[in-house]
Each structure stands twice: as C-alpha cells, then as structure tokens.
Amino acid sequence: MEPSPLELPADTVQRIASELRCHPTDERVALRLDEEDKLRHFREYFYIPKKQDLPPIDLSLVDKEEDAIYFSGNSLGLQPKKVKTYLEEELDKWAKMGAYGHDIGKRPWITGDETILGLMTDIVGANKKEIALMNGLTVNLHLLLLSFFKPTPKRYKILLEAKAFPSDHYAIESQLQLHGLQIEKSMRIIKPREGEETLRMEDIIEVIENEGDSIAVILFSGVHFYTGQLFNIPAITKAGQAKGCFVGFDLAHAVGNVELYLHDWGVDFACWCSYKYLNSGAGGLAGAFVHEKHAYSIKPALVGWFGHELSTRFKMDNKLQLIPGITGFRISNPPILLVCSLQASLEIFTQATMKALRRKSILLTGYLEYMIKQYYSQDRAETKKTAVNIITPSSIEDRGCQLTLTFSVPMKQVFQELQKRGVVCDKREPNGIRVAPVPLYNSFHDIYKFINLLTSALDSAESKN
C-alpha cells in the first residue's frame, strides 16, 4: 500500500487500477488499498458508530446496521475500546481503597499524568521534561503567554494567522488587554492574498523579517482549523527566533495528525488538546510543551502546589521548590479519569507509530482528493453538475488528513443531506465542510462509500434549488 517516496497518491491509485485492469474510481481499487494497508487492524481498537444511532439519520436512506462514515476525527476522535477498562480500574480502586489510591496501582493518582508522559514523547517530538499533561488547551495557552509575552515599548506585538481559531484569538486579545495594550496596534494578523484561501509561506516570512523587531511572540496554528493548511513550523520558528521573537504553536489540529519534532525544531512553546486526533474524549486532558533551553529562564507567572518538587511537596511548609521547565507550570493534581482515556489512545499510537500513520494518511487523503477531482472537477458549464472545490492545499507537505470542501450549492443543504445518509463530518462558517479521514480507524473503502453518498447528497441538494 505504501507509496514509494517518489510516488504521489494519484500515481499509486492509477498504478493499482492498471494492475487490476479497471478504472481508478472502481471499488476494487479501494478494496486493494485496504488489503495492502498494514495498519487496517487498528480500526478494531475503536468503537465505530452505527448509522442507526446517529441523531440526524434518515432510516429510509440507509442500512441501519452499517457503520457510519466517520470523518470527524478532527473534531472528536472515536472512543478506544480500552477506555472503559481503564476507567473501571480506577473506579474500582477508588471504591475499594479510597485515599490509598493516591499512591498505589498502575496509575497512582498523585503521579497519574507523569505515568503516561512517555507515550506522548514521539507524538510531539520532545523529551519527557519538556511536556506536561494538564488543563485544557486555552488554559495552557494563557499560562504560557503569561510567561513568554513580556512586552516592551519596542517589542509589543503578537503575530498570528488570519481567522485563527476563535479561542486563540480571544486569548491573545485578553493577554494584550491585560498589559494595557491596544489590540489594533499590538495584534498583527497575516491575511491570505486577495482571492486566496491559504497563506503563502513567503508572505509569512516577509512579515517576520520586516516587522520582527516589534514582535514579542509569534503564535500560529500547526494546522489551520478551517482550511486544513499545515504551516511550516520549523521555518516559521527559525525566522521568528532570528528576529528575537518567541515562537509558539497551537497544535490542536496537528498533534496525532502530522509528524512533529518540537525539540529538534527549537520551538519555544506549544500547547494542544487531546480529544481530536488523540481520541481522549470530549474535554480530554490537554498538553503543553516548553523547550528545555528555557527550563531555568522561563518560569510560570501563576503557580500551584503541583509545580512543587514531589520529594518535598507534602512537607506543607509553604516554601516553593519549583520544578524547572514546563512541569513547574502544573497547578493542580491530575484528573485521573481523564488520564485513563488518554492512556488508552496513546498506547495505540505507540503501536502504530506516527511515521507509519502519516504515510497512510498521505495516501488516504490523497485518494479522497483524487476521487473528488475525478467526480466533481469537470467544467460545470459543460456537465451542469454541482461544483466541489477543495480549499485545502494540494501539496502533501502543506496539509494533514483534513480536506475542506466548498460547493456551488448552499453548504448547509449538502451537510444536512450527508448527515441523513450516515456521514459524520462537520461544517464551519462561512461555507466549508471539513472531511477528515483518520488513518487509525478510517479505511479506503470508507472514502469510496463517502463519494457515492456525496453524489446522492449533491443530487438531493440540487433538486431543492
């Protein structure tokens, strides 16, 4: 299944079609891709929703016993089957021994978050001392900005991409207000060129080089939530640091989706949620990263007792012995039930490896792109079919698994028709439907079936216009 380094996904699809002596859009191509997928067994590690259990389903249009086409892992990942087992272990321990559970078992409650740190290192490309599992994403972003954003009369701006996720936007606005700065002057937003949906790397670098002396912090997404654009993290980091800026990333849509090497890239700080590609459940335990080079120079602005060295934490003498680096940013004891669900998923990542998952993801999303272009990229004036446009970059280096689609008919109608047919994806204003085939549990046959359901949904939406 895996394409050679020089073989693009479209070439892989066409090669297999040639071997099978069929058209590249034939179902047999999808089935062959699944046969050759060395990661296909990981689908069995997750609960796949049945169409009959989906609230918007129209049972007259589907086989209710079929699995849903779940392409919403970029919003909420599916539940690993081991979650229930791990939760029951801790509930049982709590029931049987109460407070003794703080020190006993596979996940002592005092150090529960630390017991799974090793499972996260390869996913983000960092060492254990550079990672903390705590809080929610935006809480972590605030804690990091309080320490890294120290504006001066000359260096007072925060640089971010246009249409950053609203929570990031609000966080930056409030941080600027906290320092008494004017948002209009201190919040530097890079927008795409006129008529374009995504940012050009040369434009980002140009702004950093021209205005970097006045920028204190650069905060970008790893992958943009709406367009699905994967930003060049090492290049942005290098350019920003060359101008004296701290460079951080919101990795909500990048972690578990693309390969990350935060330590080697020299990223100053980062944060992420775990309920999307990391499958930890709604509101799951978030993560944060501070590079080890800042372990003794950057300290938390707000502290709590779980940032205190464990060896003396329970002396209760009110003499803070702060743990160096990101571990010292922890404020409260870890929520052990959230640790359980995250552990269940991270163990699967350890077995699959990010490198193998990324290789499959490139082919999986490439197959989806190929099928969409085969069916919907013809000249609409000639075919009189609904036009489907992909606004996510076509280059595999510039995207993760998500494709964002726009349509020549009202997006909401298309979305509703997909829901009725058991496709789980999501819509984002102003006019995009986000489709994210996840390599851990999605198959190539899922994509083949999705294309057929999309055709049916578009036909229905067309008839209403």
Describe the 3D structure:
- The protein is built from 17 helices and 13 strands.
- Strands 2-8-7-6-5-3-4 form a 7-stranded mixed β-sheet, with helices on both faces.
- The chain has helices spanning 9-20, 27-35, 82-97, 112-115, 121-124, 137-148, 166-178, 183-186, 201-211, 233-242, 262-265, 310-313, 336-352, 354-376, 380-383, 411-420, 444-463; strands at residues 69-70, 131-133, 157-161, 187-190, 215-221, 246-250, 269-272, 287-290, 388-390, 403-407, 423-424, 426-428, 432-435.
- The model has no long low-confidence stretch (mean pLDDT 95).
Structural class estimated from helices and strands: alpha/beta
Sheet with most strands: 7 strands, mixed
Q: Percent range for helical residues?
A: 25-40%
Rounded mean pLDDT score: 95
Question: Which of globular, elongated, flat, extended, rod-shaped describes the shape?
Answer: globular
> pLDDT below 50 for ≥5 consecutive residues: which ranges?
none
**Biggest sheet strand line-up:** 2-8-7-6-5-3-4
What is the total tally of β strands? 13
Which percent band covers the strand fraction?
A: 5-15%
Radius of gyration: 23 Å
In N-to-C order, the SSE pattern is: HHEHHHEHEHHEHEHEHEEHHHHEEHEEEH
Intertermini distance: 41 Å
Number of helices: 17
